[in-house]
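In this section we walk through a basic example: taking a raw amino acid sequence and producing a predicted 3D structure, encoded as discrete structure tokens. The instruction is simple. Fold the sequence below.
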Amino acid sequence: MTDDKLIAAARAAADNSYSPYSNFAVGAALRFADGSVVTGTNIENASYGLALCAETVAVANAMAQGVRGGLEAVAVTGPAADPITPCGRCRQVLNELAQLGSTDPDILCVGADTVRRVKLSVLLPEAFGPASLT
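The resulting token sequence is shown next.
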């Protein structure tokens, strides 16, 4: 799957966002080495703190489907003109999945007309993960 198709999958996921409080629909799409793509969207909650980010939902979907290891790329889209990046919590959640396959995926931070490509290790340097517990 090309980056453009991965971005399109993330945008399609954002169409299912439940974001009545922020009106900030986010979509995420994860691409794996085996060709599989798993998506997620943000899900807000009236208590705010219980909201789920699109990237976290995508990782949970991947885990629920048994997709682990081989994370190559992640596209994150939102309604803003400027590219958005995963929040700190999502960076950590993505890192956990990436470390299961010893990968450093590209993160495609997508805006209206701009895509910023950055490695997860740049977004989360010196990350704590499964290898830190041995």
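Looking at the output, two observations stand out. The mean pLDDT is 96. The CA atoms of residues 99 and 131 lie 8 Å apart. In the next section we compare this with other chains.
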